[in-house]
Amino acid sequence: AIDNIIRDKVTPKRGSVLHCSMWGVEHTGVYVGNKKIVDLDGDGNIRVRTPKQFIDGTNAISIYVACDGTSVLYSNSIADEAEKNVGNKRNYDFLADNCHRFAGYCITKDYASEKLVETFSGLEKTIKNHFSPTKFTWRVWDLASSDMFY
Q1: Contact (Cβ atoms closer than 8 angstroms) between residue 72 and residue 127
Q2: Measured CA angle at 88 (ends 84, 89), to 5 deg
Q3: CA 14 to CA 106: how far, in whole Å?
Q4: Pick from 75, 85, 133: nearest CA to 107
Q5: Where do runs of H (alpha helix) occur along the chain?
Q6: Which of 24, 62, 96, 111 is most deeply buried (CB count within 10 A of its CB)?
Protein backbone atom coordinates (compact mmCIF):
# COMPACT_ATOMS: atom_id res chain seq x y z
CA ALA A 1 0.00 0.00 0.00
CA ILE A 2 2.83 2.43 0.82
CA ASP A 3 4.40 1.91 -2.61
CA ASN A 4 1.08 2.57 -4.32
CA ILE A 5 -0.03 5.57 -2.29
CA ILE A 6 2.93 7.43 -0.80
CA ARG A 7 6.04 6.78 -2.91
CA ASP A 8 6.63 8.38 -6.30
CA LYS A 9 5.52 6.21 -9.18
CA VAL A 10 7.33 5.96 -12.50
CA THR A 11 6.65 5.03 -16.10
CA PRO A 12 8.97 2.40 -17.58
CA LYS A 13 10.97 3.14 -20.69
CA ARG A 14 11.80 0.73 -23.47
CA GLY A 15 14.38 -1.64 -22.01
CA SER A 16 13.39 -1.30 -18.34
CA VAL A 17 13.53 -4.40 -16.15
CA LEU A 18 10.25 -5.08 -14.33
CA HIS A 19 9.05 -7.37 -11.56
CA CYS A 20 5.91 -8.32 -9.70
CA SER A 21 5.23 -10.45 -6.65
CA MET A 22 4.28 -14.04 -7.30
CA TRP A 23 3.28 -15.87 -4.11
CA GLY A 24 6.47 -15.13 -2.19
CA VAL A 25 8.86 -14.93 -5.14
CA GLU A 26 9.29 -12.37 -7.89
CA HIS A 27 8.47 -12.67 -11.57
CA THR A 28 10.58 -10.54 -13.91
CA GLY A 29 10.40 -9.29 -17.47
CA VAL A 30 11.57 -6.58 -19.85
CA TYR A 31 9.44 -3.63 -20.94
CA VAL A 32 9.53 -3.24 -24.73
CA GLY A 33 7.20 -0.24 -25.11
CA ASN A 34 3.51 0.28 -25.87
CA LYS A 35 2.46 -1.39 -22.59
CA LYS A 36 4.09 -4.67 -23.64
CA ILE A 37 6.38 -6.87 -21.54
CA VAL A 38 8.55 -9.77 -22.69
CA ASP A 39 9.00 -12.55 -20.15
CA LEU A 40 9.84 -16.22 -19.80
CA ASP A 41 6.93 -18.31 -18.53
CA GLY A 42 7.03 -21.48 -16.45
CA ASP A 43 6.79 -23.61 -19.58
CA GLY A 44 9.92 -22.00 -21.07
CA ASN A 45 8.09 -19.82 -23.59
CA ILE A 46 9.44 -16.34 -24.27
CA ARG A 47 6.35 -14.26 -24.93
CA VAL A 48 4.90 -10.75 -25.14
CA ARG A 49 2.43 -9.85 -22.39
CA THR A 50 0.21 -6.94 -21.41
CA PRO A 51 0.54 -5.65 -17.84
CA LYS A 52 -2.61 -7.56 -16.89
CA GLN A 53 -1.28 -10.77 -18.41
CA PHE A 54 2.07 -10.23 -16.67
CA ILE A 55 0.43 -10.27 -13.22
CA ASP A 56 -2.33 -12.82 -13.98
CA GLY A 57 -1.85 -15.88 -11.82
CA THR A 58 0.14 -13.94 -9.22
CA ASN A 59 -0.86 -12.14 -6.05
CA ALA A 60 0.59 -8.87 -7.41
CA ILE A 61 -1.29 -5.59 -7.39
CA SER A 62 1.63 -3.62 -8.83
CA ILE A 63 4.44 -3.92 -11.33
CA TYR A 64 7.79 -2.50 -10.22
CA VAL A 65 10.41 -0.79 -12.40
CA ALA A 66 14.17 -0.82 -11.73
CA CYS A 67 15.29 2.72 -10.94
CA ASP A 68 18.15 4.91 -9.77
CA GLY A 69 16.23 6.87 -7.14
CA THR A 70 13.19 7.99 -9.13
CA SER A 71 14.94 7.81 -12.52
CA VAL A 72 14.02 4.77 -14.60
CA LEU A 73 16.91 2.53 -15.65
CA TYR A 74 16.62 1.35 -19.25
CA SER A 75 18.48 0.50 -22.42
CA ASN A 76 17.08 -0.03 -25.89
CA SER A 77 19.55 -2.87 -26.40
CA ILE A 78 17.90 -4.76 -23.51
CA ALA A 79 14.49 -4.41 -25.20
CA ASP A 80 15.99 -5.37 -28.57
CA GLU A 81 17.39 -8.60 -27.09
CA ALA A 82 14.09 -9.44 -25.39
CA GLU A 83 12.12 -8.87 -28.62
CA LYS A 84 14.62 -10.87 -30.65
CA ASN A 85 13.89 -13.90 -28.44
CA VAL A 86 10.08 -13.75 -28.55
CA GLY A 87 8.74 -17.10 -29.74
CA ASN A 88 11.82 -19.01 -28.59
CA LYS A 89 11.58 -21.74 -25.99
CA ARG A 90 14.01 -22.45 -23.11
CA ASN A 91 14.32 -25.57 -20.98
CA TYR A 92 12.69 -23.82 -18.03
CA ASP A 93 13.94 -24.75 -14.58
CA PHE A 94 12.61 -22.91 -11.51
CA LEU A 95 16.10 -22.80 -9.97
CA ALA A 96 18.45 -22.76 -12.96
CA ASP A 97 16.82 -21.31 -16.10
CA ASN A 98 14.05 -18.97 -15.09
CA CYS A 99 12.65 -15.49 -15.75
CA HIS A 100 15.47 -13.83 -13.76
CA ARG A 101 18.09 -15.53 -15.88
CA PHE A 102 16.26 -14.49 -19.06
CA ALA A 103 16.11 -10.83 -17.93
CA GLY A 104 19.78 -11.01 -16.95
CA TYR A 105 20.61 -12.44 -20.36
CA CYS A 106 18.81 -9.52 -22.04
CA ILE A 107 21.11 -7.18 -20.12
CA THR A 108 24.42 -9.02 -20.70
CA LYS A 109 23.62 -10.95 -23.93
CA ASP A 110 25.37 -13.99 -22.44
CA TYR A 111 23.44 -16.94 -20.99
CA ALA A 112 26.64 -18.64 -19.80
CA SER A 113 27.66 -15.73 -17.58
CA GLU A 114 24.17 -15.53 -16.13
CA LYS A 115 24.53 -18.65 -13.98
CA LEU A 116 24.37 -16.42 -10.89
CA VAL A 117 21.25 -14.62 -12.10
CA GLU A 118 19.05 -17.54 -11.22
CA THR A 119 17.74 -15.61 -8.22
CA PHE A 120 16.05 -12.23 -7.95
CA SER A 121 18.98 -10.88 -5.91
CA GLY A 122 21.35 -12.11 -8.64
CA LEU A 123 19.34 -10.19 -11.22
CA GLU A 124 19.49 -7.08 -9.02
CA LYS A 125 23.29 -7.45 -8.89
CA THR A 126 23.42 -7.69 -12.70
CA ILE A 127 21.27 -4.55 -13.01
CA LYS A 128 23.54 -2.70 -10.57
CA ASN A 129 26.70 -3.85 -12.38
CA HIS A 130 25.29 -2.80 -15.76
CA PHE A 131 23.84 0.60 -14.82
CA SER A 132 25.93 1.58 -11.75
CA PRO A 133 23.07 3.44 -10.07
CA THR A 134 23.81 5.66 -7.09
CA LYS A 135 20.57 4.64 -5.32
CA PHE A 136 19.11 1.43 -6.73
CA THR A 137 15.42 0.98 -5.96
CA TRP A 138 12.22 -0.47 -7.36
CA ARG A 139 9.32 1.94 -8.03
CA VAL A 140 5.71 1.16 -8.85
CA TRP A 141 4.72 1.56 -12.51
CA ASP A 142 2.35 4.52 -12.70
CA LEU A 143 -0.30 2.56 -14.51
CA ALA A 144 -3.93 3.54 -14.03
CA SER A 145 -6.03 0.51 -13.12
CA SER A 146 -7.99 0.82 -16.36
CA ASP A 147 -4.70 0.70 -18.30
CA MET A 148 -3.91 -2.64 -16.67
CA PHE A 149 -6.32 -4.29 -19.10
CA TYR A 150 -4.58 -3.21 -22.32
Answers
A1: no
A2: 150
A3: 13
A4: 75
A5: 2-5, 51-55, 76-84, 99-108, 120-131
A6: 62
